[in-house]
Amino acid sequence: MIAESVTEAQHSGAPESQSLLAINNIEVIYDDVILVLRGLSLNVPQGKIVALLGSNGAGKSTTLKAASGLLPSEQGEVSSGSILFDGEDITKVDAAERVKRGLSLSMEGRHVFPDLTIAENLQAGAYTQRNTGELFDFVYEFFPRLADLRTRVAGFLSGGEQQMLAIGRALMARPKLLMLDEPSLGLAPKLVEETFGTIARLNAETGLTVLVVEQNATVALGVAHHGYLMEQGKIMLEDSAEALAENPDVKEFYLGVSTSGEGKKSYRDVKHYKRRKRWL
Ligand code: ATP
Questions:
Q1: Which residues contact 206 (CB under 8 A, 6 or more apart)?
Q2: Which residue, judged by its Cα, is nearest atom 19 of ligand 1?
Q3: Is residue 33 in some structural domain?
Q4: In a shared domain, residues 135 and 179
Q5: CB of 8 closer than 6 A to ligand 1?
Q6: 183 and 167 share one domain
Q7: In which domain, by residue range, is 129 found?
Q8: What three-state secondary structure class fits 167?
Q9: C-alpha 57 – ligand 1 centre gap (Å)
Q10: Under 8 Å CB-to-CB from 274, ≥6 apart: which residues?
């Protein structure tokens, strides 16, 4: 029976891993009038890292908020389409229940509790869990720096340490799917490499499924299996990470490699654009 369905899937060209998250043709509206996502679909296969790329305002964070159920707190709603997690329709399921089911989001800008210690911040992330001892061990193994600083107050940590803490806190909910909103934001290049190295290790060693939103396409495509490129609330392009990294348009607009010489798409402009996006 199992062998038959595998053969069938192979014949139909279906992806070899099953979708853990399937976003099907969703529209998202804020304040009843501002249409931000316009028929967006994407799949995150079980056990894979998927990168969602796009420039400022494309709707990347909104996509993560739709998946994690956070839109209602911002007067946003999924007005059409559906979101499936682990085969179940969660479009109308509230955010807390989604965390319990295994969807965990580490938000842009870190959002740690500044007055709490590292250990207390991690404990706060484990509110859906009973046996937190092994979860602390797990997070400290992947982020040894957090173990060293566990009694420090989070507000005094460096940007990179706060980023690690935000990811560590999301891991304390024992997620099946870890969603990360711009983990590279504001980090020095070495720390960006380190953070993405840890994301790749988490995936390779534990099979954790990851959906990562990034403006730093180079580093995201470096660890992802598959990538989506979105603009103005829609997916413009999707492919394997290797194919996207070789795509001429992606190279020019997102990887800062000029293939056209003069004009708007020059390396200098792209670099300037990227820098502007990063620091404004
Ligand atoms: P960035 O890379 O700058 O974070 P993004 O791709 O994550 O951008 P979103 O933050 O999802 O984009 O925003 C997409 C659009 O939705 C933008 O035009 C933004 O102004 C709008 N938007 C986002 N949040 C809200 C909100 N709470 N109310 C109204 N409009 C919003």
A1: none
A2: 57
A3: yes
A4: no
A5: no
A6: no
A7: 113-174
A8: helix
A9: 5
A10: 215, 256
